[in-house]
Amino acid sequence: MLKGKTVVLAVTGSIAAYKIANLARMLKKLHCNVSVLMTQNATNFINPITFESLTGEKCLIDTFDRNFEFSVEHVALAKRADVVLVAPASANVIGKIANGLADDMLTTTVMACPCKKIISPAMNHNMFHNPIVKDNIEKLRKFGYEIIAPDNGMLANGDMGDGRMPDEEVLLEYILKEIAFEKDLAGKKILITAGATRESIDPVRFITNHSSGKMGVALAKAAMHRGAEVTLVAAHTDVPLPMFVETISVKSAEDMFNAVTENMHSYDCIIKAAAVADYTPVTVADGKIKKSDSDMSVALKRTKDILAYLGENKKDGQFICGFSMETDNVLENSRKKLEKKNCDMICANSLRTQGAGFGTDTNIITLIKKDSETELPLLSKSEAAHRILTEIFETGK
Description:
The protein is α/β, with parallel strands linked by helices.
């Protein structure tokens, strides 16, 4: 995913420095070039040899170290960097960078980098809330630095409070958002549904389906990585919801219908990837349908058809994409769905195909439009998500 990309990890003097070793390992597994800078204080918390072993590159500490490949190392590294992450970022280094001080290898290189720079503060609760530190952080924001808000939790001294650096998985997501993909969908607004709706029978039981939400979440994450402004309407999912995406949590099919249709015309594209429970429970009492009670016989009533409503009410230029999960006559039934619901594209797959269906990490999809059918091979759901988005935005209707 990050082949050919260079990430500079700038490590300052904080106990949280140990997390960056795992972050470096995670980046290398994604085939990224990783260079590590350390302040002298940081070497008291983690040995530079750790980073050199993980990255295969010299860990840079001393500005005047002559044992390196390039004539002016901080400038050469600055030219190669695609993104710089200062993590953990101490109050001292935040203050230096915010006020233009460059008195070591780390601050000198950060100053020389024209690429995006991300700061992850890590310090004591009172220090983080010190007005001088707050002012320096705001100054960095004004200069275009991205600030990762610290977590609230137990700090190194045992106190509870703000200032805890987020885990390395969170730091990685900030890097991926910045450099994993070209921002070819910048300026696009996309709404995506994901997960399985649940229709309550009573306080204990409900009707649902086997959808895990993996495909919808993969689509939301892929669109976000490519620069789109993404809203995810999420019912029950078996996977974590993506960062940097506006999420609307829903439970029932009616909840999802209302969330999707409320501002539907503000989106360039709507992708219905959620598996909606098609029926909602009602009860029969004295021959009349009323809200369910556990001691009455349960009947079923069809829920609102979200995809049909979108097709009937779409604005000019808006792209509506649905999913079709079939067991037989996949292409024929999916094409009928395309026409009946006035969609621009249907992503069709079969429950009977190995590697596709509910709960898997892979999918085999055929992209059906009015005048074309594109069969995709077995792909991860992330790869399939990117192929779907490319089909929508590059080939149009």
